[in-house]
Design a protein that fits this description.
Layout: H1 22-40, H2 47-62, E1 73-77, E2 98-102, H3 104-130, H4 135-151, H5 158-177, H6 182-213, H7 218-226, H8 233-251, H9 259-266, H10 269-294, H11 299-322, H12 331-354, H13 364-389, H14 402-405, H15 407-421, H16 427-442, H17 446-470, H18 476-484, H19 486-489, H20 493-511, H21 514-520
Antiparallel strand pairs: 1-2
Length: 525
């Protein structure tokens, strides 16, 4: 079903498909409910706010179910706007002139955004209580950011995309700053300044694109750029480049990655995990929409640019991770931060391939598949870091001998690291890298596939070194202390649920990796 009808062509009043917009709408309503409830809830009952937030995100995920299995649903439409897309997974003629389209592409990234936010919420319940963070503000900001992240992949005009990107970003600044120490304030300031700069550059680019194309709807932008007068083409090309800067910042692509290590280490741990998955998914979806739909006439130009960006990003990320000292404070989070930069490079490979793919091909399915795999595994790794940080520090050396203290947590972390490295038994990680590698080869980007293969080998070093620490001989005093303090060895229910969900999902996907293809799009093989 596609809802495109306008009640009166000459009127601004039109029908709204409430089912299509339900997932981000439910998250927004839950954010308001948390904010209002916090005003009347006694301090001793503030923990219920976290449960309310998790319930709202779960309902938003359930709202995705009626949208699956049918035709794309579109709303907030105007008439007489041309469509232009050669990418089967995005848009289509039926969605011409619509600002919101719930198609397969949007649903996959909404699943990742809302599911990642739910896992981050579970991970946050213990952290909010332990670090005495303001519960009402924390849960409101998390839900607000998740609303923007869920709105962005369904946006089909540049104005809505910018609004969605800022709704996802602005609450994130405050979330980082909620940690009441110098690190939190410094991390939030770096995040804010770099993000505002990227947004300003992107808005300038959108202004150029609008001047050259005469529209903000993605399909109409493509038509306008294709038939733009010769004197406007330099302006259009400059606008396209500047527009992509904001999305590259959210993806943490080099050279827009400098905020990542300091922001992750200064933020509360669940917020770092949230930014590494949900924030990256929002930027990635926006980048995919802008390139493959709006800027399709410049496909070979941005295809080459994204290929170079992917190669540089994965290389800088992995080299940065190699340079981390494994005995310094917070190095576990910083190592995951640099690892996320390297993983962003892999995520960009299929987008670069989309610039060279023939009409009818769908390399974006590879990006969606790898993003889902990365989201599950990376949030699981942050969950283990949070569990270890309850009794020890968060440096990699604090994981030494974890198997002797808590074997199930150690096994879960080992599995997550092997998935990130792409080694058995983490089959799903290997599967994701093969899917991305094949997208590059099929698009004729053999040199990029070689760069990716080299970086995968380089990343093996720090992933395997961390894995080896888990099973190294432990300090007898630490083992005795862990055994004596039985209460301390037991994880809170929320942490247990986080590790259980992520580890179970990773194991199931490793046993049946075809499930990822069925969710992300079955045209990859």
């Amino acid at each position: 079903m596609t809802s495109l009808a306008v009640a009166n062509p000459g009127s601004l009043i039109q029908s709204v498909d409430w089912v299509a917009i339900a997932p981000p709408l439910i998250a927004a309503v839950a954010a308001l409910a948390v904010l209002v409830t916090d005003l009347f809830l006694p301090e001793r009952h503030k923990k219920w706010l976290g449960r309310l937030a998790a319930a709202g995100l779960a309902l938003a995920l359930i709202a995705l179910l009626p949208l699956t299995g049918g035709s794309p649903r579109a709303t907030f439409c105007v008439r007489n706007v041309a469509a232009a897309t050669d990418t089967p997974s995005i848009g289509g003629p039926a969605a011409a002139g619509c600002s919101y389209v719930a198609d397969h592409f949007a649903l996959v990234f909404q699943l990742l955004a809302l599911g990642g936010a739910l896992i981050a919420a579970l991970l946050s319940m213990h952290t909010v209580e332990k670090e005495r963070l303001p519960g009402g503000e924390y849960w409101f900001l998390l839900l607000s950011s998740a609303t923007g992240a869920a709105l962005l992949p369904a946006s089909r005009d540049l104005a809505t995309m910018v609004i969605a990107l800022e709704v996802a970003s602005l609450p994130a600044f405050a979330l980082v700053a909620l940690r009441r120490d110098g690190r939190g304030a410094e991390a939030a300031l770096k995040f804010f300044v770099s993000s505002v700069t990227a947004t300003a550059v992107m808005l300038l680019g959108i202004g150029f694109v609008y001047a050259a194309s005469g529209s903000l709807h993605l399909g109409a932008v493509a038509q306008g750029l294709e038939h733009a007068p010769g004197q406007l083409k330099p302006l259009a090309e400059a606008g396209a480049v500047l527009t992509l800067v904001g999305f590259a910042f959210k993806v943490a692509a080099v050279p827009f990655h400098f905020w990542v290590p300091d922001t992750y280490t200064g933020a509360p741990l669940p917020v770092a995990g949230y930014l590494s998955v949900v924030g990256k998914a929002a930027g990635l979806s926006g980048l995919a929409l802008a390139t493959t739909v709006a800027f399709r006439p410049y496909a070979h130009t941005w295809g080459l640019a994204l290929a170079v960006l992917a190669a540089v990003t994965m290389t800088v990320g992995n080299v940065g991770a190699l340079r981390q000292r494994f005995d310094t404070r917070y190095s576990a989070v910083r190592l995951l931060a640099w690892s996320s930069v390297g993983q962003a490079g892999y995520l960009l490979v299929p987008l670069a391939a989309a610039g060279y793919a023939p009409t009818g091909a769908d390399p974006l399915g590879a990006t969606a598949a790898y993003a889902l795999i990365y989201g599950v595994v990376n949030l699981g790794a942050f969950g283990v870091v949070a569990a270890v940080g309850r009794r020890a520090g968060t440096s990699v050396d604090d994981f030494r001998g974890l198997f002797a203290r808590n074997r199930w947590t150690a096994l879960a972390m080992a599995f997550f690291l092997l998935c990130l490295a792409g080694l058995p038994p983490g089959v799903i990680g290997l599967f994701g890298k093969v899917v991305v590698f094949r997208a590059a080869v099929d698009a004729g980007l053999g040199w990029l596939a070689v760069v990716m293969a080299v970086n995968v080998v380089v990343a093996l070093y720090y992933y395997l070194l961390w894995t080896a620490r888990l099973f190294a001989p432990a300090d007898p005093a630490a083992v005795a202390a862990a055994g004596a303090d039985g209460a301390g060895a037991r994880l809170p229910v929320s942490l247990t649920a986080t590790l259980g969900l992520t580890a179970s999902a990773a194991v199931v996907l490793s046993v049946a990796p075809q499930l990822v293809l069925q969710v992300a799009g079955g045209s990859l093989f």
